[in-house]
Design goal:
The protein is mainly beta. The chain contains 2 helices and 17 strands.
């Protein structure tokens, strides 16, 4: 599986201490913590490849293994982070679109003391993006779109300090904090081939329990191809996605082994018929160092169903 992920990375580049254990429509579109509580999109993306403006529902699953204890011979436990997310992208003014993400999380893990499960509404995110530049002439060989904007994540999800134990501090449905986002996306296309590059940064704040999740930087580059005709459109895609996490803090002090980084290879496809579209995507880690090697990502996958506005 790691060879597959490495091949994805090499393919993407041609176009443009692991711990144990249709273009016009698309050109109008913008397009956690390491685990559950801020799983609102991140490397999975904030938009559809086919639908410029839409409402829909998305499910994504994340699999992790975490060290249950402070010693090297402590047992590893499997953790499953699941999210059902209502999402939408709506034009509100010329060159301005607003995206909204409303997640519901249900996570589980099996510890030595038994199985633990949590569920509930997550943190709601609202993000506005403004088109700074867009190619107007359809006859030019390359077309470009540049969008930038920002947003806010509200602490609508429950934060439980009791879950910040010796396993995974991100086993939460919410951060308990007001967080702020900056985002940018650049798209370049030629004929039916295109490349999407995006970055976003989340500034996190301290919650009422004096716990402060570290700031998060996400980046991704996705190569995609538009195939099909007026009725049916199929968009295969491949690329990379990375995430960097600053250290968590409590009472203003950095907590050890809470920062990290990870690089994924990803594959996906979307298909659209009429006003409806469906998409699936999968991600495998290429390299990672999360929480000092105490948490390891295994894989992620997602499926979405959208209705074009």
């Amino acid at each position: 599986m790691k060879k597959i992920a490495f091949f994805i990375l090499m393919t993407q580049m041609a176009f443009a201490n692991t711990p144990p254990r249709n273009f016009t429509k698309y050109l109008e579109a913008f397009d956690c913590d390491a685990c559950g509580c801020s799983a609102s999109g991140g490397g999975m993306g904030f938009s559809s490849m086919i639908n410029g403006n839409f409402v829909g529902v998305r499910y994504f699953h994340q699999s992790y293994s975490s060290l249950d204890g402070i010693f090297n011979n402590s047992p590893w436990v499997d953790e499953n982070f699941n999210t059902v997310q209502a999402w939408a992208r709506i034009p509100v003014a010329k060159n301005l679109q607003v995206s909204a993400l409303v997640p519901y999380h249900f996570h589980n893990r099996r510890l030595a003391t038994g199985e633990q499960s949590i569920d509930g509404l997550g943190d709601i995110t609202v993000l506005g993006l403004y088109t700074l530049y867009q190619t107007k002439n359809d006859s030019v060989p390359f077309r470009h779109v540049l969008q930038m904007g920002g947003g806010i994540k509200a602490p609508t999800g429950k934060y439980d300090s009791a879950n910040n134990g010796s396993v995974n501090p991100s086993f939460q449905v919410g951060t308990g904090s007001w967080d702020y986002l900056l985002a940018a996306e650049y798209i370049i296309t030629r004929n039916n081939l295109g490349l999407n590059a995006m970055v976003n940064y989340t500034f996190k704040t301290e919650n009422s329990e004096k716990y402060h999740f570290g700031d998060q930087f996400n980046y991704a580059a996705t190569l995609f191809y538009m195939a099909g005709g007026d009725k049916l459109t199929v968009v295969p895609q491949a690329g990379i996605a990375g995430e960097l996490y600053a250290a968590n803090k409590q009472y203003g002090e950095d907590l050890p082994d809470t920062k990290g980084d990870i690089l994924f290879g990803k594959l996906g496809v979307e298909a659209g018929l009429g006003k409806f579209s469906v998409g699936v995507a999968g991600m495998l880690p290429i390299s990672q160092n999360l929480t000092g090697g105490r948490v390891e990502a295994n894989y992620r996958w997602s499926v979405n169903l959208n209705y074009s506005l």
